[in-house]
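Two quick folds needed for the group meeting slides. Do the first one here.
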Amino acid sequence: MAPRLTHLALPCHNLDATIAWYEKYTPLRKTHHRQDALGAVAWLSPEELGIVLVFIQKNETPDPIPVLAPLAHLAYHSIRPIKSIKSLNEENAMVV
């Protein structure tokens, strides 16, 4: 098997909100979740072969970490219509 990218691990501020957003707007579904004294991690995977997003929430980080700000981003073709970026922000959906 040829080498390939298997996952992308990103910190997040609110793991539950992040999972809810990706499950609502993308084909990714939570396939793994664990929590310990340091924080929590969740794996979101597509049904078909593809990259897995791993979100990590550390208990010691109370404020959002702008890892992808201001220009880097993840792009996913939405499975639900999105009216506008404004509506996403109103839903508090920009969670990564």
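Then this one, please, same format:
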Amino acid sequence: MNGKKHGKGIYHYQSGGKYKGEWLNDKKHGYGVIDYANGDRYEGTWKNGERSDHGIYEYSNGDVYDGEWKRDLKEGHGKLEMATGDKYEGEWEGGKKNGSGTYEFT
């Protein structure tokens, strides 16, 4: 496709990260897994190069977010389990906790 990434494949970034998944018009699109150079990892759906719909983001510090994404930000319902043992499950908007939810402290 005119030298653009399209279909399924693996891409190694110069930074040390790696993406394995689907491409459309040179952008991550569909299901894919990215391992970032800093140790973070995202597995889920992509749309036009951005995290979208549902995905799981594992932070290198041990925190894990499992939930909805929109335009590369946490958006909708999601659950964040922190390495400290604290948990939040509820609504997110623009990448931040917003709306109704439950926060459990350890």
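Slide caption for protein two: The beta strands are 7-12, 18-24, 27-35, 41-47, 50-58, 64-70, 73-81, 87-93, 96-104.
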